[in-house]
């Protein structure tokens, strides 16, 4: 299901933004402008569908750390993320757990960084009419089943997680299950280890790998999978475009997969342990973007990190090619990459700035007070 719109409110530097989403969405701006916050907001929806919302927020410092800290209207502080497809709209709103104490003033729970889902909605869009398919208020939810009947959710909801992760009898609620499956299928890449002890620098036991791990740890097996069941010619061209005259070789003695890069002028190939951080990262991006099993939605956060400027054009070509099979979301502070993507895909990047602590889109009315 292609996404058409993203709305984020009350999340870190994002007071409120409503953004269009196309086949390729490019978000560009300086450090601290809020690019990564939009990426993380999308990631939260996927984590919510998997039942990892509380853990994902804990890794960011807990709910108090992610809520908008600027001036706001009266009422509780809420983080809201909503996404629209052609005929569906899903919205998740959460806040901090209210402090609870016993008669002696002692806290009843130490889990005071957990989220509490306040509201959750799913609407079917029928022209200008919204049909409620899910309406949640804290731990109670009403759903519309496959027959169009409004029913009470049969289980007591866990306050810190989405209905999507607690869905029982998905055949009774097919549209909710559709959204759950869509969000779970999103793919995110924002950090590939390239330090000397990074797992992809050493041979590893491997299996056929159509989807690269989020940290790139199974890189050699993923590249070999592309060679065997994916676009082998396209991968060879992508390597040659980035490193003229170079050629990849994958070896797997005793099932342990490792990569070698043959380069002109060198008497022997270089192993992954010898490659520069930028070269290794580019190969990870190549494996992610050329997956033989492309996702419906793929997000990259600052993919230019540690890449040599000469690699930005080949990277742009990979991203644009991937956007033919997947919706691709790219956040970057590299203007050359943004320009290359704009030229190749004929898309206008969304440029972010920060005013009075709030993320805004430059020269746009997409930011709302």
UniProtKB/TrEMBL annotation:
**Stretches assigned to the ATPase AAA-type core domain:** 24-333
Gene3D superfamilies referenced in this protein's UniProt entry, alphabetically: P-loop containing nucleotide triphosphate hydrolases
UniProt GO MF annotations: ATP binding; ATP hydrolysis activity
Q: Which GO terms describe its biological process?
A: DNA synthesis involved in DNA repair; double-strand break repair
Q: Please state what the protein is called.
A: Recombinase RecF
Protein source organism: Cystobacter ferrugineus
């Amino acid at each position: 299901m292609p996404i058409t719109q993203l709305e984020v409110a009350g999340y870190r530097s994002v007071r409120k933004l409503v953004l269009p989403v196309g086949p390729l969405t490019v978000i560009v701006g300086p450090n601290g402008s809020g690019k990564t916050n939009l990426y993380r907001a999308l990631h939260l929806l996927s984590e919510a569908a998997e039942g990892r919302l509380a853990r994902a927020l804990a890794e960011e410092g807990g709910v108090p750390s992610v809520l908008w800290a600027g001036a706001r209207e009266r009422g509780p502080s809420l983080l809201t993320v909503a996404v629209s497809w052609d005929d569906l709209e899903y919205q998740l709103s959460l806040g901090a757990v209210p402090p609870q104490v016993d008669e002696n003033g002692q806290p009843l729970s130490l889990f005071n960084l957990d989220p509490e889902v306040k509201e959750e909605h799913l609407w079917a869009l029928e022209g200008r009419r919204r049909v409620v398919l899910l309406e949640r208020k804290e731990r109670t939810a009403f759903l519309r089943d496959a027959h169009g009947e409004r029913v009470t959710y049969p289980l007591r909801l866990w306050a810190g997680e989405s209905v999507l992760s607690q869905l029982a009898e998905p055949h009774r609620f097919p549209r909710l299950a559709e959204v759950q499956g869509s969000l779970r299928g999103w793919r995110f890449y924002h950090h590939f280890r390239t330090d000397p002890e990074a797992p992809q620098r050493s041979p590893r036991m491997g299996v056929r790998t159509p989807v690269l791990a989020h940290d790139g740890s199974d890189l050699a097996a993923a590249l070999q999978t592309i060679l065997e069941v994916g676009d082998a010619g396209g991968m060879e061209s992508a390597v040659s475009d980035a490193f003229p005259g170079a050629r990849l070789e994958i070896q797997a003695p005793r099932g342990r997969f490792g990569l070698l890069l043959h380069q002109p002028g060198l008497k022997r190939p270089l192993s992954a342990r010898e490659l520069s951080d930028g070269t290794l990262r580019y190969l990870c991006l190549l494996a992610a973007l050329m997956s033989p099993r492309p996702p419906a939605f793929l997000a990259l956060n600052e993919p230019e990190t540690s890449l040599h400027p000469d690699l930005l054009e080949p990277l742009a070509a990979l991203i644009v090619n991937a956007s033919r099979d997947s919706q691709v979301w790219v956040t970057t502070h590299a203007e050359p990459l943004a320009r290359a993507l704009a030229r190749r895909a004929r898309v206008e990047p969304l440029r972010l700035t920060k005013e009075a602590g709030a993320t805004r889109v430059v020269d746009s009315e997409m930011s709302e007070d």
